[in-house]
Amino acid sequence: MPSPKLMPLVLSEDECHTLQAWERRRTSSQALAERCRIILACAEGGSVSGVARQLGLARGTVAKWRSRFLRHRLEGLTDEPRPGRPRTIGDDKVEQVITTTLEQAPPKGDTHWSTRSMAAATGMSQSAISRIWRAFGLKPHLVETWKLSKDPQFVDKVRDIVGLYLDPPAKAVVLCVDEKSQMQALDRTAPILPVMPTTPARMSHDYVRHGTTNLFAALNIATGQIIGSHHRKHRHQEFLKFLATIDKQVPADLEVHVVCDNYATHKTDAVKNWFLRHPRFHIHFTPTSASWLNLVERWFAELTNRKLRRSAHRSVAQLEADVGAWIKEWNADPKPLVWTKTADEILDNLTAYCQRINDSAH
């Protein structure tokens, strides 16, 4: 039983619910969750020593937070401000930096503000400018590219392709098809130096070109396996050859749904006639300027990062053999690329983004 000298700790219904929510919340710090457990245990009638034993804490820790809660209630469980040097930059100065960054053109015809130019304009130090920008997530030195599709059938195509990813039809295979064109066989002008302790791998910045090839690839979204073939040219004739390769490798009793972009070689009369002669094939075009909907593009990024970016090849044939061997290794232990967003989520995000950039223009 608690000591008679202790002031009883009684929780209101709201306080009890709040403490329980803070204890279970994933985003709560471990320290806050521990303090909530202390108060809840004390409210159940436990003594300071009993709660300390129950939770495996020091008696002084339990006494401290019990006392803090009695004095300040829920607010007492948060950390007190730490003593230190008082702020030298007031809110008005911070507001000036933010407003200048967002609304005023940089001086001397520069394209963006730097810490140096902002420090000169506001009379503050570069380190202060840097701290303010970090606190508010401002990065004037960075720029990102974006493009919105103007396809009049954008919504229908998004729903069609995302539907294939999330709920593929029965007795069918869904293949994401595209070409990684103009892959260059590059050889460095000096040997690549291997990684060593404290020193990363090093390669010369200049290189010698030995020609290009085009990789036609089809990603099976269910298994993650790749059907690939190299062609020296990138025309509808090579695309037809690749479709024939797919036709041979996919079991004849399965329907084939092909997702591809709007490149001209995918829409010639010869290609259209091929699909008419092969009725088990169904073509699904991504919206214009929306190649991000094609999952094989993500696989191309894996190929670039894990094979092409840091390799050297002295001929196109060597490049093709090396990539072919890498694809074989991939298919031995494939990793499916799982699509997670629904069509509604994608469209809602794009709507919010369009609204945001439209508002920022006024």
Notable traits:
3 domains; Nucleotidyltransferase, domain 5; 362 residues; alpha/beta; five-stranded mixed β-sheet; 13 helices; extended
How would you describe this protein?
With 362 residues, the chain is an alpha/beta fold. The chain folds into three domains: 13-77; 91-135; 157-193 and 204-345, Ribonuclease H-like superfamily/Ribonuclease H (Nucleotidyltransferase, domain 5), CATH 3.30.420. Helices cover 45% and strands 13% of the residues. It is built from 13 helices and five strands. Strand 4, helix 10 and strand 5 form a beta-alpha-beta unit. Helix 2 (30-43) crosses helix 3. It is extended. 19% of the residues are buried.
What order do the strands of the largest sheet run in, or round the barrel if closed? 3-2-1-4-5
Helical fraction equals 40-55%
Proper CATH architecture of the largest domain: 2-Layer Sandwich
CATH class of the largest domain: Alpha Beta
Apparent shape: extended
Radius of gyration using CA atoms only:
31 Å
Number of strands: 5
- Helix vs. strand class: alpha/beta
* CATH homologous superfamily placement of the largest domain: Ribonuclease H-like superfamily/Ribonuclease H
Q: What about the largest sheet?
A: 5 strands, mixed
The H-and-E topology, N to C, reads as HHHHHHHHEEEHEHEHHH
Oligomeric state of this protein: single chain
